[in-house]
Write a structure and sequence with these properties.
This protein has 202 residues and is α/β, with parallel strands linked by helices. It has ten helices and five strands; from the N terminus they run βαβααααβαβααβαα. The protein has helices at residues 16-27, 34-44, 48-54, 74-77, 82-99, 111-114, 130-141, 148-167, 183-186, 188-201; strands at 5-10, 30-32, 104-107, 121-127, 179-182.
């Protein structure tokens, strides 16, 4: 079956977002990353900044950080915590994209798990060594008060905790994806070419 949807999970600083954007351009696919944030914000009334900070990252660096969240207003969130509510809306938006019939690239947000029962999905994980990611984070986002190594490690821990909480699977484990690519070794352009080759010739 032809690939209609490509999900890209990625370590922070590995270039997964850049890979996704280039794939969308080359293949003529719709691209969804921050676009999902816009849709979730529009439906929930939360600011885009709040959704961005809480829709893909755990409240802390451990799965146990979810234990300290309080339930939201019953009439608005049916007693769910804010992060659970955001996940439920985000999941709905991802399913809407998948069911739209349009060829799409979806970056992050547990999309590989949410779409696990779809046959026309290619799930990709992009990773790289710490040094590559540290340097790329500084080049892409600039310097900050937090050391690049800490930025990379903390972001990944929060993504991993979020993924574990909502999927009960280990983030980054090869058996969760169809292909895992080391962008630090291959280069982002080569990653794009490999994914395109698979998507076009599956």
């Amino acid at each position: 079956m032809a690939v209609k949807i490509i999900t890209i999970s990625r370590q922070f600083g590995s270039g997964g977002r850049t890979t996704g954007k280039q794939l969308a351009k080359d293949l003529g696919f719709d691209y969804y990353d921050r676009e999902i944030i816009d849709r979730v914000a529009g439906e929930t009334g939360f600011s885009k900044e709040y959704v961005a900070a809480n829709s893909e990252y755990a409240p802390g660096k451990s799965i146990f950080s979810y234990s300290f969240e309080a339930a939201g207003t019953p009439g608005i969130m049916n007693g769910m915590t804010t992060t659970d509510y955001l996940y439920s809306i985000q999941r709905k938006k991802i399913l809407e994209i998948a069911n739209s019939g349009k060829n799409s690239i979806i970056v992050g947000r547990c999309a590989d798990y949410i779409l696990r029962e779809f046959d026309d999905v290619l799930n990709v994980f992009i990773y790289a060594d710490l040094e590559f990611r540290k340097n790329r984070v500084v080049a892409t986002y600039g310097e900050s008060n937090t050391k690049p190594e800490k930025r990379v490690i903390d972001k990944d821990k929060k993504r991993a905790a979020n993924y574990k909480h909502y999927t009960d699977r280990e983030w980054g484990m090869p058996n969760n994806y169809d292909i895992c690519l080391n962008s630090g070794y291959l280069g982002i352009d080569k990653c794009v070419e490999i994914i395109k080759e698979i998507a076009l010739n599956r």
